[in-house]
Design a protein that fits this description.
The structure is a single chain. The chain has 71 residues and is of the alpha+beta class. It has one domain: Alpha-Beta Plaits, CATH 3.30.70.100. Helix content is 38%, strand content 28%. Strands 2-3-1-4 form a 4-stranded antiparallel β-sheet, covered by helices on one side. Strand 2 and strand 3 form a beta hairpin. The radius of gyration is 11 Å and the shape is globular. The protein starts with a strand and ends with a strand.
Length: 71
């Protein structure tokens, strides 16, 4: 599953490190890549995609970002 996020906002370098640590801790995390103001997060093989989606939603709320709807 690929999830595209619109530019998170960081308050400090430690805040940015925490965000990426949380992404890497997602069940089934494979990779994250940046494109301009967007991030593409790839997760695979997670037994519970709903749980992974809920964790991504929580990250979005905390860092003031949104999931970009698929085109």
């Amino acid at each position: 599953m690929t999830i595209e996020l619109e530019g998170p906002r960081f308050l400090s370098s430690a805040d940015e490190e925490n965000f990426f640590s949380c992404l890497h801790a997602l069940p089934g995390f494979v990779s994250v890549r940046g494109y301009g103001t967007r991030l593409e997060v790839v997760v695979e093989g997670s037994d519970d995609l709903e749980k992974t989606q809920a964790r991504v939603d929580a990250l979005c709320r905390r860092w003031g970002t949104v999931i970009v709807p698929p085109e």
